[in-house]
UniProtKB/TrEMBL annotation:
Residues 101-118 have a biased composition (Gly residues). Residues 61-71 have a biased composition (Low complexity). This is Integrin alpha-6. Belongs to the integrin alpha chain family. PROSITE patterns: FG_GAP, INTEGRIN_ALPHA. It comes from Balaenoptera musculus (Blue whale). It is found in: Cell membrane; Membrane. FG-GAP repeats lie at residues 233-298, 304-369, 504-566, 567-622, 623-682. Residues 1-195 are annotated as: Disordered. InterPro entries: FG-GAP (IPR013517), Int_alpha_beta-p (IPR013519), Integrin_alpha (IPR000413), Integrin_alpha_C_CS (IPR018184), Integrin_alpha_Ig-like_1 (IPR013649), Integrin_alpha_Ig-like_2 (IPR048285), Integrin_alpha_Ig-like_3 (IPR048286), Integrin_alpha_N (IPR028994). Pfam families: FG-GAP, Integrin_A_Ig_1, Integrin_A_Ig_2, Integrin_A_Ig_3, Integrin_alpha. The chain crosses the membrane at residues 1216-1240. GO terms for biological process: cell adhesion mediated by integrin; cell-cell adhesion; cell-matrix adhesion; ectodermal cell differentiation; integrin-mediated signaling pathway; leukocyte migration; nail development; negative regulation of extrinsic apoptotic signaling pathway.
Amino acid sequence: MNEGSLHLHVGPPSASAQGSGPLGPAHHQHLSLLTGSKRLSGSAPNGNHNSSASLQEDTRAGAARPAARLRVSPPRLPGQVRGGREGQRRVAPHRSRAGREGAGGGRARRGQGVGRAGAGPASSSLDKTPASLQRTTGSFSGRELPARGSGRAESATCPGGGAGRGGERRPRWPRRQRRGSLEPSPERRAAAQLPAPLPVRRPMAAAGRLWLLYLSAGLLPRLGAAFNLDTREDNVIEKTGDSGSLFGFSLAMHWQLQPEDKRLLLVGAPRAVALPLQKANRTGGLYSCDITSRGPCPRIEFDNDADPSSESKEDQWMGVTVQSQGPGGKVVTCAHRYEKRQHVNTKQESRDIFGRCYVLSQNLRIEDDMDGGDWSFCDGRLRGHEKFGSCQQGVAATFTKDFHYIAFGAPGTYNWKGIVRVEQKNNTFFDMNIFEDGPYEVGGETDHDESLVPVPANSYLGFSLDSGKGIVSKDEITFVSGAPRANHSGAVVLLKRDVKSAHLLPEHIFDGEGLASSFGYDVAVVDLNKDGWQDIVIGAPQYFDRSGEVGGAAYVYINQQGRWNNVKPIRLNGTKDSMFGIAVKNIGDINQDGYPDIAVGAPYDGKGKVFIYHGSANGINTKPTQILEGKSPFFGYSIAGNMDLDRNSYPDVAVGSLSDSVTIFRSRPVINIQQTITVTPNRIDLHQKMPCGAPSGICLKVKACFEYTAKPTGYNPSITIAGTLEAEKERRKSGLSSRVQFRNQGSEPKYTQELTLSRQKQKVCMEETLWLQENIRDKLRPIPITASVEIQEPSTRRRVNSLPEVLPILNSNEPKSVHTDVHFLKEGCGDDNVCNSNLKLEYKFCTREGNQDKFSYLPIQKGVPELVLKDQKDIALEITVTNSPSNPKNPTKDGDDAHEAKLIATFPDTLTYSAYRELRAFPEKQLSCVANQNGSQADCELGNPFKRNSSVTFYLILSTTEITFDTTDLDVNLKLETTSNQDNLASITATARVVIELLLSVSGVAKPSQVYFGGSVIGEQAMKSEEEVGSLIEYEFRVINLGKPLKNLGTATLNIQWPKEISNGKWLLYLVKVESKGLEKIACQPQKEINFLKLKEAHNSRKKREIAERQTDDGRKFSLFAERKYQTLNCSVNVNCVNIGCPLRGLDSKASVVLRSRLWNSTFLEEYSKMNYLDILVRASIDVTAATENIKLPNAGTQVRVTVFPSKTVAQYSGVPWWIILVAILAGILMLALLVFLLWKCGFFKRNKKDHYDATYHKAEIHAQPSDKERLTSDA
C-alpha cells in the first residue's frame, strides 16, 4: 500500500482486479475536501461525461498527488481507478459502513454513484483487512464528515451519443414477474404477535476520516457492571466471516416458521468473494447464522450467475443492507452498486449504476413471483446522473410492519437529491390483476418531476429508511428517510402516500444542527414511552461540539400526538471522534419493563462501543444503562435486535464490526425480588429484660422474607439467592461500635443465609436473633436493620438449545435492599407514652467584640435590627429555645420531652456559618451544631431528648465576608424539628437591615507647601517644557481603608477638585502627571486634563526652579507701609475647577495618588503681583458607586493648602517723603542734645573730678617694698 494514498478494506482488491471502493471507487469525503493523495479538479456540468467535478488519483505508478481544496456547496465528486479491459471503468459508490468517511467514484461518461461514504477517487490497492485500514483525514470546516460516496467512471460511449442522458426507455416488465405479494401467510400472521425486528442500521462511509482515533476522557459514563445483556465471555456468541469480506456490515434478525421454526441472524458481507458463475472477483453476499450452531455461517445462494454482455456484478456490494419482514415474512437484501451495461467492448459501451434488490421467501429461497432480483426500478428510465443513471437503489430498504409495503432508497437519483420508492401488493388484488395501490415515489412514478423532491441536490435522500403508523396519524403509514447531506448538515423527511397522484409527499422535515454533522445517517422508529405514538431517533455521527468534546450525537424526538413542529429533541452525545450515532436501532424491550429500548453505535470509541438506553414513561433515560465494548476494531458499526434468538422470551442484540465479525449478546431474564423485614418487638424497652441469652437481657427477633416475579409469567426457574441481614451499617462506617450483634455471629452485626426460590411468587424467609449490647450510651437513636439479596450463580450451568444457560439478573431499577428502624421507648412522655412537646424559639441579632465571646444587641430602627457593618468580620445570632408547658395550670397537655430536637438554620448567600457558642443551658449542656460543606445551613442538635422545662441559649457565629454593596437585608430561616408531637413548628425568618459603613479616610499634603513666583511672563504658545511653566508642586492624597476591601463591596473613586484656571480663563495650576502607589495602574478621567499642552516633562521633578531676579517691566512698586494684601483661591469663589476622577481599583488597606503639577508663573505675575501672598486650596473626596443606598461614608474628604509668595525682585521698596526725613533728623538732634545736657549736669565734662577719681584708684594699689637686706634676713 502506497503511503499517502487512501486505502480502505472495503475498496477494490487491486488495480488489476478491476475493483472499486465501497462508496464509489474509494472511501473519500464527499464534500470536496481532499487530503493525502486526493486531487480535486472540476469543470462546469454540461450534461456529458466530463461535466462534473472529479476526484483523480494517479494509480498507475502507485504514486499519489496530494492536494486539498474546500468547497462549501457539495459538488459531484467522481473518482478514477485503473482496471478493467479499457484500463478505466466507472464504479458506483458503496453504502458501506466501513467506507462512510468519504465517497469515491470512478470517472464516467454518465452518472454518478452514491455510497455510504463521501466522494473521492479510488485506491488502486484495497486488499488489506479492516484492522489495518489507513484512515485519511477528510474534514469540512474542521470536522470529519461521513458523507456517502459518489462515483463516476469513464467507459465507452453510451448508445445514441450517451452523455448520461440518452438511452431508450425500457418497456415495463410484466407485473407478475416484477411484483409479488407482501401479504403475510397464515402461519406468519399467527407468529406476528411478537414484535418484528426493525430495519437494520445502514452504514456510512468510513474512509476520509483519520484512522488515528483521538480518544477523549469520555462524556458518557463507563458502567462497572452491565445490566441484562450478558457480557460474560462464555455466553457471548462470536461469528466470523472471510477476511476482507466485511462480514457484519449489515445485520437483520429473521424468524423462519416454515418448513421449520428457526431463529436466524442474517449477515451482509458486501465484499465477499464472488460465486463461480458470477464472473467477477468480489460481489458480496448474504449469510445465515444459527446461534445454536458452532460452525461457520453458510452463504445463502441466489444471484449466482451473470451475463457480462448486459451487466457487471464486480463490487456490486450485495448485502450492503438486509431487512426481514418479521416472523414468517420475507427478506430483502440489496446491491446498490450493481451495473447495467450496453454495447460491451465497443466504443459505445456504457454502464449505469442502477443497483438492485433481491426479495427472498421466509426460507431464504426464491419461491414466488415477488421473489428474485427484479427489484430495480431505475432500469429502463432516463439515464445520466441528472436522472436515474446513478440512482444506486438499495442503499436502504425496509418493510412496513403491516407486511404490505416494501420501500427502497435511491440516493443517487436526480443529481444525488435522492428519492424513496414504495411498492405494495396483496394476494387478492394480485390474483385479480388489479394494481391500484402504488407504486409511490418521491417525484412521481410517471411524472419523474425532480422539483418535487423536498431537498436540494447532493442531499442523498433515501440514505436511511424506516416506517410506521402513529407517526403523524394513527391510521396512516409514514415513511421516515434520512438525507444526511441536505443543506450541508443533514435532514430527515417524513413522507406520506398520496393515492391520487401516486406521489410520496413530505409532511415534515427535521433539520440537522452543526455543519457536516450527517444528521439522518441512520433513523429508527420506536414508541419509547408506550403512548401509542411512534417516536423517532436520528443519528448524526459527525456532529461536533468543541467546547464539550462531543463527537457524534443521536437525537430523540418524542412524538406529541402527531405534531412535530414544536418538538425539541433530546440529544445524546458521544465522545470525541467516536462517530456516536452511526447506527441507531430499536432493539425491543430487552429488560421487559414495558418500554422499548434503543442501541446507539460508536465504532471509533476505542475499539468500538454500543450504548444501551432504556425507554421510559418520560421518553428515554438519557444515562446509558449498559455499554457494550468490542474486542475487534470498529465494533458497533451495525446493530440488529428486537427478536429473541435464544428463545428465553427476551430480545437479543447483535453487533457487527468492520473486522469481519459479528457478536451476539443474549439478554438475561430480569428478576424483581420483593423483600420484607419484620422485627419483634418493634420497640426496645430498656427496663424489660428477657431470658434470651443476651448479656444485656434484651433481644430482637429479625425476620426477612423474599419472593420474585419476572416476565413472562411462565418463566419459573429455581433461583438460589444469598439473603443478608445487617444492623447499623452506617454507624460502623463512621467508626462507632455497634450497639447490637447477631447471636453466635461475633461482634459484627451481619448474618447471611442461602435460600432457594423454586418459582415465581413463592415466599421464603430467614430468621435470626439480634442481641443488644450491655451498657450502651446512645439509647435514643433508633437501630437500623437492613435486608439485602444477591443472586448466586451455580458452579455448573446446563446447556439449553446447545447454548450455555443464561442466568437471571436483578432488576437494576429496583432497590436491592430494604430496611427498618427499631426505636427505643421514649422517656418523659407521660402515661400514654406519647410525647407532646412545646418548643419555643426566640432570636436576636448581635455584634461580636473582636474574637471574644462578648455580644451586644443590634440597635432597633423602625422595629427591625440594623447592622452597621464596619470592619467586623462576623456577627452573631442569639437563639433561645425552651420546652415548657404552654399552660402551667395544665402541665400534662404539652411540654413533654422533645426527642431528636433539632434547630435547622438556613443562611442567605451573604452569610456563612462559622461556629457556635453555648453560654447558658438548663439543666445541662448537650448542644452540637454541624454545618454543610459550603456553610449555607447548620443543624444544631438540642438534645435527644430535650427535656421538659429545659432551655438553652446559644450563638451562631456568622461570617459577613460575602456581604456586598447590594446587600440590604439579612434573612435567616430558623426551623425547629422534633420527633415528638408538636404541630406549631413553623419556620421563622430572622431579619436584619444592613447598613454598610465604609472606614475610608483621605488625607493630603503638598510638597512644597510654600512656593514663589517671579521672573518674566512667558506666553502659552512659547512654552516647550514643563519647567517653563513655574514652580513644581506635588500633591499626594493618601487613602486608608480600615474596613472591608472595596473589591467585595463596590467601586470607589477619588475625586479631586482641581483649580485649573482663574475666572478669566488664565491657567492657575497646570497638571502634568498622575501616579499611584498601592493600586493597580491608575487611569484618571478626564485624561485630556493631564498635561493638556503635551509639554515635555522635566527629567528631575525635584529640581528647584530658579527664578530670575530682574525687575518686571511694568515698574510697579510695593510700598513698605502699604496695606498687606492676601487672597484665597478656591473652587467656590474665583477659580474654575475641573473634577479629576481616579478609580481606586485594587484598594485593599491603603494607597496613594500623587498629582504632579506646576504653578502657572505668568498668571501670577500678571494678576497677583501686588499680593503679599495667596492661598490655593485643592479639595479631594471619595465617592463610592453602589446599586443600593445603604452605604455610609463618613469623613471621606480633605483639602490641601499651598501658600504662594512673590519673589524679592517683585516686592521692591519705593522712596520716603522729605518731610519724614527732616522730622527724623530734628528728632535725632534733639535727643542728642538732651543726652549731652544730662552728662554735663552729672559733671562728666569736669577734669578735677576725673583726676581725683584716678588718684584714689591708684593709691589703693600701691604699698612699700622691703630692701634687699631685709629680704635676705627674712629668708634665713
